[in-house]
Each structure stands twice: as C-alpha cells, then as structure tokens.
Amino acid sequence: MLNEGLSKQKIIKILEEKLSQDFSYKSGSILGSMCTEPLDFGKEIYIKYLHKNLGDPGLFQGCAELEIELILEIGDLFNGSNITGTFTTGGSEANIIAMRVAKKIRSDIRNPEIVVPASAHVSFDKAEDLLGFKLRKAKLKENFELDLDYFESLINKNTCGVVGIAGTTSLGLIDPIEKIGEIIEGKDIFFHVDAAFGGFVLPFLKKLNNKIPSWDFSVKEVDSITADPHKMGLGLIPTGGFLLRDSKVLQKTGFEIPYLAGGNFKHFHIVGTRPGGTIIAFWAIMKYLGQNGFIKIIKECLENTDYLAKRISEINGIKLAAKPIMNIIGITTENGESICEIDEELRKRSWMLGKFTNFNLIRIVVMPHVKKSHLSKFTQDLEDIVKRLKIS
Ligand code: 0PR
After folding, report:
1. Residue nearest to atom 8 of ligand 1 (CA)
2. Which residues of the chain have pLDDT under 70?
3. pTM of the complete model beyond 0.90
4. What would the pLDDT profile of 73-112 be if each residue is shown by its tens digit?
5. Which of 286, 313, 338 is the last residue of a domain?
6. Considering the domain boundaries, does residue 2 fall inside one?
7. Closest ligand 1 atom to Cα of 168
8. Does ligand 1 have an atom closer than 6 angstroms to the CB of 91?
9. What is the side-by-side order of every strand in the sheet holding 361-365?
10. Which atom of ligand 1 is nearest to the CA of 35?
11. How does strand 190-194 pair with strand 159-165?
12. CA-to-CA distance for 100 and 302, rounded, in angstroms?
C-alpha cells in the first residue's frame, strides 16, 4: 500500500486504462451472458442508497419494509398470495438457501437426497457440496427436455426436495412443473423452482399471448422460487430473489442473531451484511417500468431472438439445438461434429458466447443490450466460419 495517496485524476486514469480491456455490453460482443446494463434510473437510485445494510434490518426499517413489499409484489406476479422471501446475492445463493430449507425441514431423513434435472445450474452442485445431501440428476431426452419418468424413478423415501427449472441455463426451456407437482403431491417433499432467468421473462411472455405452461405459485405444490432481478429484471448486480410460499419456514429454519444493533432478527441468508441499495433500486425499477415497460423490453428481445433463429436456420451445417421459448438460443452442428472449433473461431472475432460441451451447443442470450445490428454482424461471421471449417 502507498504511503501517500494518489490524486483522484491519477486513480481514475489508471482505472480507465486497466478496465478498457473489459468487454462492454454496448459493443454487442457479449452474446452469452445473462447479465446486462442495469436500467439508468436503477443506477441513480442505487448510488443514493448504497450504504443501506439489510444484514441488520432493524436499523433500516424503511428499507426492510420495501423488501417485504417488493417480495409481495413479485409473489403476486408469480400468482401467489402473501408470498414471503428475501433478496440474495444472486440465483446461486437463492438456490443454496432453498436446498438448505428442503434439507432442514426434513431433519427426520438421515441421508437426504434432492432430485434435479441434468440441466440444473451448477449452484445445485455447490449446494450438495456445502450442505452434504445427495444430488440425484435426472437425465434429459434427446430434445433436451426432462425425462420425467427417469425423474420420478429417482424419488424415494430419502428424497427431501425436488427442483424444476423455468428457463434452463443452457436453452431457456421450461420443465413440466405441473407434472412434477403431481408426482410429489401428498408427499412431504419440498418443491423448488429455479426461475433465476425465467422469472422476469415468463409473466410478460404470457401477456404477449405466448402459451406458457404453469410454472409458478399457481402450481399448488411449488414451495419456493428463485427469480433474479440482476438478469432480465435489469437490476443491479448483486440482486437475486428467493420467494417462499410458507412464511413459517423462516421461523423454523432461520438463524437467531440476538445481538444486532437494530434488534433481534432471523437470518436465512448465506451472507450476513447484505445490500439494501440494490433492493431499493429494483423497487424503483418495477415502479418505473410497470408491466408495460417490461413487456416492451421482452418484446424487443423476442423479435431479435426470432431474427437470430431465422438467420441460423439459413446457414448450412448448423442448426438450433431446440426451438426457443424465451430469449435464449442454442446452436449446434447438423452432423453432430463438435461445436468447439466454431466457438473458438467466434471468440477470435470477439464474439463471447456460452459453450456447453456436455450438450455440444453454444448459447446466445438475447439480452436487452443485444441489438439486431449486432446479430446481423454476428451471423455473417458465423456463416463465414462454418463455411471455412467446412462443416456440413
Ligand atoms: N439458476 C439459473 C437457471 C441460472 O441460469 C443461473 C446463472 C443461476 C441460477 C445462478 O445465478 P447467479 O449467477 O446470479 O448466482 N446463470 C448464468 C450462467 O451460468 C450466470 C452468468 C451470468 C454467467 C453472466 C455468465 C455471465 O456472463 O450462464
């Protein structure tokens, strides 16, 4: 550490130089990310309130009330009533919290197991590692949909929880949430839905007259949902969401922290100190955009997704891995050849995509920062690369 501090200008200059090597959303080259530029109004609000700490909610009661209000509002959007929950650092923390709850409320099971689709996000592997339950992965069918019979066959007397995904990480597909509900009906099994990405897409897709299967609290067996403001909610990083149907669960599983300056509160987060500013910012974003604002954003993403899907179908040698439901597209080869070389060549031209070697696909998330002009340039490069590599 320096003895004498530097001038602000000097520091800003060093930072600008250093950070100029980062990719930017604006350039359009970030095609494989679920994050995007937060809404400007959200940033303004965040800067004003970034000192709020909901790790000690009694000190920030107004902020704590906004959190409850916002959870209720999102719960309504997800067809629940009186939904409780909390904001987290992201989908991973929300999923880990859900898995902890699933394990905790079935403390009668000595060797607990949780069943997830093979398409589940890596946060469930992290949860297994941290929490010491056994993760059972149900395989997918050839078309990347969940093999429901296989899923059911993994459920046994040790199963304390099951997970369905509404917007898979690799392709944005929706698991048959209602059918999973039917399978566990009447059994004492916690049902968590991971809608980290889909949570702020699906309600608006439905309003745009798309046929969307039930995936939320309208399915009576669903106990909790992950839905992340810092993905399609245009919120600030870090803001994940954990929504819970039964408020008594917090009382049963939360950690008592009696010494907090603001008074006794129960925690069920992984972290202690946690941002209130990001939550206030998302409260403001929801109020500012309203349903129609979100619908407009999603509509543009979908139009761009359709454009991209059409362009891909015109290129010989590659194809869509699955028909897109939301603004996520997977590209694979027609003849089953590895997708890795195409990915490598695209990277050389600064197109940054997600690569899923287990499914042999590259993923594009058509986020709000991805414009048609970017996709037009991208597909020209893609076509050129596929021709050069002689993939047929
Ligand atoms: N659940 C699902 C279905 C997800 O897709 C993700 C993240 C999570 C949970 C975890 O969310 P957090 O990352 O907020 O903890 N999916 C993205 C992915 O793995 C995360 C991401 C975002 C990766 C931006 C890269 C990137 O540039 O693709």
Report:
1. 91
2. none
3. yes
4. 999 999 999 999 999 999 999 999 999 999 999 999 999 9
5. 286
6. no
7. 3
8. yes
9. 318-320, 328-333, 361-365, 354-356
10. 24
11. parallel
12. 35
